Amino acid sequence: MMAYKGFNSKLQAVMGRGIFQFKPGETYEESGCKCARNGFHCAENPLCALSYYSGMSSRFFIVEAAGDINQDGIGSRISCTKLTLLKEIDRIRLAVHACIYMQTYPERDIENHRYVKRDNGRCCEEGDFVIVRGRSPWAAGVKGSWLFLVKEAKGSGRIEAVCPVFIDEEEYKADTWYGIRGGKICKKRD
Questions:
Q1: Is the dihedral of CA 167, 168, 173, 175 positive or negative?
Q2: What helix, strand, coil percent values describe the chain, rounded to 5?
């Protein structure tokens, strides 16, 4: 199955026996897997990778989790006996994948994640992002940040639109609230 994994800047991750060094494209195998105990850990929800490696220098990969797979119901965390690092993605691409995940599984609770806000939110760091989900989502950010507005359909929670906004100080300005109206990005009126 496809999943996501976070690492420190040196492409290392903590395992039960200490720090493990990974390499892109390589496949790794363990004899057993049990979440929080052994095996290679990853997550179905892209944002779960940020729960373990949230620093701006962290690295993220799309991985293939194979062999025996164990899930313990804590978020979408997975432990597996075979892991292959398929493709490195940056944190903004990770946010894009998270929005796709929300569209695919709108009923799953991910709003308690620090990068996902209900109805309104702000991104305060250049190169970072915030995802705001709701029937009428509003977001603001600093120059160089990304806002992902995730509009829910009335009454169903189904996602009807995802609009990314890059605060470039040309088309979209810092410290300005943006939302979705008629399927298009708009400024909040005072």
A1: positive
A2: 10, 50, 40
Alpha carbons 165 and 14: distance in angstroms, whole number: 34
Give Cβ neighbours of residue 143 (< 8 Å, ≥ 6 apart): 126, 167, 168, 169, 174
Q: What distance in Å separates the CA atoms of residue 41 and residue 67, rounded to the nearest whole number?
A: 13
Rounded Cα–Cα distance for residues 91 and 6 (Å): 10
Reduced to 3 states (helix: H, G, I; strand: E, B; else coil), residue 31 is: coil
pLDDT at 112: 58
Q: Quick: pLDDT tens for 9-50.
A: 999 998 766 789 999 999 999 998 988 888 899 999 999 998
Strands (E), the chain: 2-7, 12-15, 18-21, 27-29, 40-43, 59-71, 77-89, 116-123, 129-141, 146-152, 159-166, 178-181, 184-187
pLDDT digits (tens, 9 = 90+) for 81-138: 999 999 999 999 999 999 999 999 988 866 557 899 999 999 999 999 999 999 999 9
Q: What angle do CA 34, 37, 41 make, to 5 degrees?
A: 70
Distance from the first to the final alpha carbon of the chain: 47
The pTM of the full predicted model, rounded to 2 decimals, is 0.91
Residue 183 neighbours by CB under 8 Å, 6+ apart: 161
